[in-house]
Give the backbone structure.
Amino acid sequence: MKFKIKKNVLLEALNNVSKALSSKNIIPILSGIKFELFDDKLVLTASDNDITIQSIIKKDDNIEIINTGSIVVKGKYILDIIRKLEGKFINIELFDDYKIMIYTENSEFSLNGIDIKEYPQIDLTLSSDVVSLPVSELKNMIAQTNYATSMDEARIVLTGVNIKIDNKLLECSATDSYRLALKKINLSDSFEKIVDIIIPSKNLGELFKILPSDFDGNVNMYIYNNKVIFGFENIIFQSRLISGNYPNTKNLIPNDILFNLKINRNDFYNMVDRASILNNDKDNNIITLEINDNLLKITSMSLEIGKVEEKMSVNCSENIKISFSSKYMMEALSKIKGDEVVLTFVGEIRPILLKEAEDDSLISLILPIRTY
Amino acid sequence: MKFKIKKNVLLEALNNVSKALSSKNIIPILSGIKFELFDDKLVLTASDNDITIQSIIKKDDNIEIINTGSIVVKGKYILDIIRKLEGKFINIELFDDYKIMIYTENSEFSLNGIDIKEYPQIDLTLSSDVVSLPVSELKNMIAQTNYATSMDEARIVLTGVNIKIDNKLLECSATDSYRLALKKINLSDSFEKIVDIIIPSKNLGELFKILPSDFDGNVNMYIYNNKVIFGFENIIFQSRLISGNYPNTKNLIPNDILFNLKINRNDFYNMVDRASILNNDKDNNIITLEINDNLLKITSMSLEIGKVEEKMSVNCSENIKISFSSKYMMEALSKIKGDEVVLTFVGEIRPILLKEAEDDSLISLILPIRTY
C-alpha cells in the first residue's frame, strides 16, 4: 500500500469514520480504522459493532495511488497526525508488513498497524429496499425528533426513534412517555413495503454530526430486518435497529381542542426560561401557565428561594390554568422553526400541542403535570 | 432599599463579584452577594473567605437611588435573573424586611434574602503600602507566570506566585521545581519597602478573569502582612497570601551558556506538538531534540504505538542532544510573544532557557529529563 493524498480530503474522511470509534470499546481492534487501497479508490472503515461508518475516496486529482494494500491503524493517532501535519499533500505507505509510514517533507511518523484479517467482517451490501430523501430533510427530521427519546433503558423501544413508511408518507416519532415529537415527510417516490423500524437515538445523533449541512443531494436509506444503512455523498453509515413494538403514538394526540394560541416563539421561550430560573436545579422544573382576560401569565415558586411571575398580553379571550415542565417546553420550542408558534390547549389536565404557525409537518406534545 | 439600575451595569458588577462565590463553600451565607445601597453608591460584595471581590457602582446616570438599605441575596439566582431579564433598566426593592423584589415591566421576581448582619465582617481598608502598575502589565504578568506553579499541596509555597519588589523592580516568579517562569517589570515609581509575598495561583487566575483587557488605567496593589488587595476601576479584589519562604529561583538560572538558537516560535511549537502526538497520554511526554550540522531534529517513540521524527534546517553549527517534556515546552512557548524565540542551551543535562527575541523581561526555564 502506497499513496499520496490531499490532506484535507483524508482529514474529512477520517473525521467522518472516527465517529464510529468508541473509547470504551472492549474489542481492541475496533479502536482502529481500516484502510483498504484499491486500484481505483481508498476505503476507510470504522465500527463499534453498533454503528459502522465507511468513507470512500475515489481516484481523482486528490489521491495518487502507487500500489494497493490494506492495514488497520489506531484511529486516535492517525486522526491527530493528519490534523497536525503541515503541507497540502501527505504520503502514506506500508513497510515491514504491518507498519505504516506517514510523511511530508519535514515530518515522518511510523505507526504499528494490524493485519485487516483480524478486523471483524462487516457486511455492507446495499439492500434493494431503498428510500431516498434530501439530506437536509433527514438532518432536520433528526434534529426535530431525536431530543424527545427516553434515556431509560427499562423501556428500550423508547430509547430509539421510530420511522414508519407507508407509500409516500414517512412518519418519524420519538417519545419518553411525557412528551412526543412527530414529524411527517412526504417522499417524492412511493415505497412498496410497509416500514416500521426503531433506530437508537445515540446512533442518529452520530449520523446527524456527519450529515453535511451544505449538501443539496439525497440520502439513500437502505432498509433491512435488523439494521439500516444511510448512504450519501461518499459515505455509508450503518446502524443496528432496536427490536420490539413501538407504541402507537398517534393515540396520544387529542382529536378535540379547546383553543389555539398563536404567539411569538422567541418571546414565549424567554418567558419560560426566566420562569424556570428559580427551580432549574430540580428535575421537574414545574411552571404554571395561566390565561385570563387576554393576559398570559407564567408563574413558578420555590418556598426556599422565592417566586417569579411573567406577563404577556395576548389576543385570547379563553381561560386556562395548566402546569408543565419548563425544560420540556423550552426543548420543544427550540426545535420549531419560524417566528410564531401555535399552542393548542385541550384541557387543564390534557396535553399541550405545539406547531409552527406556517407548517404542519412537526407536532410536539407535552403532558401537563398535576400540581395539586 | 429601593433603586433603578441599568441592566448592563449591574450585570457586569455581578459577573465580577460572583467570581468569589464558591459552589462548595461550607458557610451558606457565602453563597450570597451582599448588596449595600448608600446615598451615593451601590456596593456589591462576595467572598469565599479566600478571596473577596467588591464592586462599587457610583451614583450617576446608570443608577437612580430611591432609598438606601442592604440585603444578602443568593448569588447564583440573582445573576441568572439579571442576565435573562429584558429591557434597559431593572427595578430592585426590599419588602417584608428580608425579601427582595426585582422587576421590569413584564417580569417580577421575589427572592428570599438574609440580613447583612449575618454576613462575615471583611476588612477592606486600603493599606498605605501601595504599588501602582498598568492593568495590561499585571494581566500579562499573570498570564506569563501563573501556569508554571505547582499543583502539589505538599510544598505549599510552590502553589503560589512569588512577587518581589525592590525599589523600582518588580520580579514575579512561579515554579513547580521542573520549570520556571520569571517576569520582570520596571515600576514607574520606586517603592520604599522590600516586598516578598506569595499569592495563591488559583486566586490570581480569578483576578486575571476580571482584569479588563480594554482598560488602559492602572491597578493599585495594596500590600499587607497576610493579604493583598488589587484595586482598579470600580473593583476591589482581595486575596490571602501563602505564608512561608519562597525558594530563591534565581539560583536555578545558569550563568554559563553553550549556545543560543533563534527560531520561529510558531514553527517550533508545531514541531513539538506533532512530536508529542504518540505519547500525549502519558504524564511525562518526553521528546528528544538534537542539533547536528545545521539540522534540528525532534524525535519521540513509543514501542507500542510507533515513532515520529520532525526536521528543520537551522543556522547553527553547534551540536546537542537533550530530552524534555513536550507539554512544558509547549506551555512555555505559548506564553512568549513575538514571532521568534531564543532557546539557550547550557548542556545536555542542564536547563533550557527560553526568551522572546526582542524582549528580556520574561525568562522561562525547563529542566531536561534524563532518558538513559
